[in-house]
Design a protein that fits this description.
65% of the residues lie in helices and 2% in strands. The protein has 9 helices and 2 strands, in the order ααββααααααα. The protein has helices at residues 3-56, 80-88, 120-134, 143-166, 171-188, 196-207, 218-237, 242-257, 259-262, and strands at residues 93-95, 102-104. The protein has a two-stranded antiparallel sheet with strand order 1-2. The radius of gyration is 24 Å and the shape is globular. It holds the Pfam family Pex16. It is found in: Peroxisome membrane.
Length: 264
Amino acid sequence: QSLPQQKLLTWLSVLECVEVFAEMGTARVWGEMGRWTIIVLIQLAKAILRLLLLLWYKAGIQTSPPIMPLNREKQQPLHPQDVEDSSSGKDQTYVGKRSSRVVRSLQNTPSLQSRHWGSPQQREESQSRRAEEMNQPPTPLGVQETIAESIYLTRPLLHLLSLGMWGQRSWKPWLLSAVLDISSLSLLSDLKNLNRRERAELRRRTILLLYYLLRSPFYDRYSEGRILLLLRLLADYVPGVGFVTRPLMDYLPAWQKIYFYNWG
């Protein structure tokens, strides 16, 4: 990736990390008008950055989060002693004569910080496999797939525009957003030879369609009573589940009112 593309991904990641805090903080300081202003500004900035990545840098299907979090346990570098021993030609493993089991030799045991419980061959294979997956180029998108991805990226702006036109209690914003999400997924479903990250992203988008059950006005008219009843039954009749479901019942109304939690 080029340096400008990396900067765009970094800024996009920062926006996704602070959007909920910005919405809640602005609502606390400047009220509802300030809250909706910051929501529009953040969604507009995110859409512009993502469209630049899609149309100018040909980034393909964009994942969320834009920059994958680093798994520090799996990305532990080799200990300097390990590097020195491997360069000097010392055997790092011992093969049992009767069992043929491969174990690490005691002379080459790494420090506690970089120790792992697999054989060196397994570690090298997993690291090389992860490196290949991370370095796979994005799948080229045709005209249809580019339109589908553009629909998905601009859906938040169209939803906000429809909210401003018809209000939060209207079904039209909810239906418009659902049609755009389903249309985008349908157009992208024909794309073949996706890499692992892109397949995971499409699965994530499909699962997120369940959020429409928790989005107003569907939640207010149909889902709220049924969901709270189910959580209450689980808390009353399933031992131990109440420790999770009762706080969830208290938290759900507040979560449902925060835009970036259920629409962003």
